[in-house]
Write a structure and sequence with these properties.
The chain contains 26 helices and 17 strands. The protein is an alpha/beta fold. The protein folds into four domains: 2-172, no CATH class; 202-239, no CATH class; 252-383, Glutaredoxin, CATH 3.40.30; 446-688, Aldolase class I (TIM Barrel). The longest helix has 38 residues, at 388-425. 34% of the residues are buried. It binds glyceraldehyde-3-phosphate.
């Protein structure tokens, strides 16, 4: 248990880290590309790898991280994914150790610009992650699945589609979430401010001095007298001090070389900055639109500058190529790449605040009417509404919600499958299912007892008792023929069903003393008992005769309570299964499935009928289960599951609960105990226990 918890906690830590790291990289593929280039430069490989390869690597890196995170989260391909994570984390941890020690790149870029870590923090993070990956790799199969194997492909494919779409959209337009210091709404001057009392950087200078051929180093507090000669002074920075979010922004006038940053930013009004870090690789497809915007700004008296890190030659070529008339200024390439992830990209500032940012693919287009209006009158001249909540909602609706719904549907499906399996193997579940599916019946067989008046009185009493206290099962009373019509009058058919104890094996005609199935039906009865052991024994009813009776009963719309059961000798010879099977095969297994659905089976061990000897609940359950299995063999599991099998033989209120609690016992056929209302109701109430 503890081990499982540890594996799953580790797996969630890895998943969340990878997903966050992959997502923020996908949101800003150019930023990740620049970071890759930084690493390559640090390894002296910068010039060998072309831009398209570093950009492809950036997009793939984010997809791999995000994909691994999602696979970890959903426990998809657990062994392979944990191995891949390990293969990724070992070199990553080694690389970040090198970064921490050698410090060739100041920010690792693990989480893009969203979270900035020092190199030692990054190394520590990777050591923790490596530990988690090791735990998961040790026991990958302990990871709990959120979606079943068959649906995992949906999660992986959908996630890959999503992350590539995020990368593509961010590349076409701009990063959908801007974590950099130059996001819309930023006042550049304010971003450059150092608050009062902020920690300042500290430095230490040491002096290498010489006297009489002997050299020694001194600090400022121990600076020696003039007999020493200064050889060399060394200054090193001890602490960084406070660094404002924008600390390296500048704009230089190309012609004069003068820094005009303050002049441009402090001047009130609108300012367009066309940012092109590197003119040689800038996209020139939209130059018409850029020139139109320049003309618009010139017409309305707004300032418009190109800002680049390229030299004058490249600027000249750009002018020749695009017909650009705007003035170019220079700035630092890295700063320009940080300002906007588009080459070129357009910035609109108002009073030093960034109001809008556009990628070259999404430059504003002004129609004639708009071109005549000032920026104050146009939407683009104002800060946009904060679209972050909307973007988050989009991600939730388009990505997280579908996956969540899939997970719920999948879990419900897995749960129903598990329930089904349980029902098939577990007795308690079987019992629950049985009680849900099949009809529970308590039927009384009055046999040759009670005259008409007593019979009607008992029926009335029972009817009233059950109308007042609704039973949890179907109740049937089967009476001698002479009672049927009268009893039918006093019973509420919704509460108590009525049945006969027998019917003829002939349809109609000269059969003195016989009562046909049609006649039974005409009294209002719905059931008939056939095959009772007393009829088989005392009236020589053979399987063939019973077969006829069953056919006629069904033909006349009666449901049949068909009795089977072995004698004591047969039980002692352990032949009970054989006997009941033969009885069913002899009289009812010839029926169609549809006809068989009108049969209620009553298992009555002859040795228990009226003897006071009851089969134990276990004995009864064993043979009931057997009977159900042979019905299943003949008609299939569904019919068998739906068939009601009653127990009969000295069943009383005292033993009924135990018998009825068994999974395959669906009620009772009651003889002696059905002759008194209280006794019979006591058995009926066993279903309430
Ligand atoms: O039809 C009912 C059975 O023969 C059971 O009779 P019994 O409850 O009197 O034993």
């Amino acid at each position: 248990m503890v081990r499982k918890i540890a594996v799953n906690v580790a797996r969630l830590v890895i998943a969340m880290t990878f997903i966050l790291s992959g997502f923020v990289k996908a949101v800003d593929p150019l930023g990740t590309q620049y970071k890759i280039v930084d690493y390559l430069k640090a390894m002296q490989l910068g010039t060998f790898v072309p831009d398209f390869l570093t950009l492809t690597a950036s997009v793939l890196l984010s997809a791999v991280e995000f994909g691994l995170g999602i696979c970890m989260l959903f426990a998809i391909r657990r062994r392979l994914v944990s191995l891949l994570a390990l293969c990724m984390m070992i070199p990553m941890t080694a690389l970040t150790l090198w970064l921490a020690v050698a410090n060739p790149v100041t920010d690792c870029g693990c989480f893009g610009d969203a979270v900035t870590l020092t190199n030692w923090q990054t190394f520590t993070k990777n050591v923790v992650l490596l530990g988690c990956v090791a735990i998961v790799r040790y026991r990958p199969l302990d990871m709990m699945r959120f979606v079943s194997k068959t649906n995992q492909w949906i999660v992986t494919n959908y996630s890959m589609l999503f992350i590539f779409a995020v990368s593509a959209w961010s590349l076409y337009d701009l990063p959908q979430f801007d974590f950099r210091p130059y996001h819309v709404g930023t006042n550049i001057l304010k971003g450059m401010e150092i608050p009062e009392g902020a920690e300042m950087p500290t430095f230490e200078t040491t002096y290498l001095m010489e006297k009489d051929g002997k050299r020694q180093t001194f600090d400022i507090d121990h600076y020696p007298d003039s007999t020493w000669t200064l050889i060399e002074a060394n200054t090193r920075q001890l602490t960084k001090g406070y660094e404002p979010p924008i600390h390296d922004f500048y704009i230089n006038d190309i012609e004069t070389g003068e820094d005009i940053t303050m002049q441009l930013l402090e001047q009130k009004g609108y300012l367009f900055l066309l940012v092109t870090p590197h003119l040689g690789s800038a996209d020139d497809s939209q130059f018409d639109r850029i020139n139109e915007l320049y003309e618009y700004s010139r017409d309305h008296g707004y300032r418009f500058y190109g800002l680049t890190a390229s030299d004058e030659k490249a600027i000249g070529q750009w002018r020749d190529m695009t017909g650009a008339e705007y003035t170019f200024c220079q700035s630092d390439e890295t700063v320009l790449k940080t300002i906007i992830r588009s080459n070129p990209g357009l910035l609109l500032l108002k009073d030093g605040t960034i109001v809008r940012k556009w990628s070259h693919n999404n430059l504003p287009q002004l129609d004639e009417e708009q071109a005549n209006k000032s920026l104050e009158q146009l939407d683009i001249g104002h800060l946009p509404k904060d679209t972050t909540p909307r973007k988050i909602l989009d991600i939730v609706l388009w990505y997280m919600l579908p996956l969540f719904l899939l997970t719920i549907a999948d879990r419900l499906w897995a749960w129903s499958k598990w329930m089904k399996r349980k029902e098939e193997t577990n007795k308690i579940f079987k019992l629950l299912r049985k009680k849900k599916m099949r009809k529970k019946i308590v039927a009384g067989n009055w046999k040759m007892n009670l005259n008409l008046q007593d019979g009607v009185a008992l029926a009335k009493e029972l009817n009233e008792a059950l109308a007042a206290d609704k039973p949890n099962c179907d109740v049937i009373i089967c009476t001698p023929f002479i009672h049927l019509a009268s009893v039918a009058q006093v019973l509420d058919a919704n509460v108590i069903g009525l049945g006969a104890e027998n019917c003829a094996d002939k349809e109609k005609g000269a059969y003195t003393g016989e009562v046909s199935a049609e006649m039974v039906k005409s009294t209002g009865a719905q059931y008939v008992i056939l095959g009772h052991s007393e009829r088989r024994q005392y009236y020589s009813e053979t399987p063939e005769i019973l077969k006829e009776k069953v056919q006629l009963a069904l033909k006349n719309g009666l449901k049949v309570i068909f009795c089977i059961g072995e004698t004591l000798e047969e039980r002692e010879a352990n032949k009970q299964n054989e006997v009941v099977k033969a009885e069913l095969e002899g009289s009812v297994f010839n029926l169609s499935e549809e006809e068989f659905r009108n049969i209620v089976i009553a298992y009555e061990p002859i040795w228990a009928i009226g003897t006071g000897k009851t089969a134990t609940a276990e004995q009864a359950e064993e043979i009931h289960a057997y009977i159900r299995s042979i019905v299943a063999e003949k008609y299939g599991a569904t019919v068998a599951d739906d068939t009601t099998i009653l127990y009969g033989g000295s069943c009383k209120a005292s033993n009924a609960p135990e018998l009825f609690a068994k999974p395959d016992i669906d009620g009772g056929l009651i003889g002696g105990a059905s002759l008194k209302c209280a006794d019979f109701k006591g058995i009926i109430d066993a279903w309430k226990k």
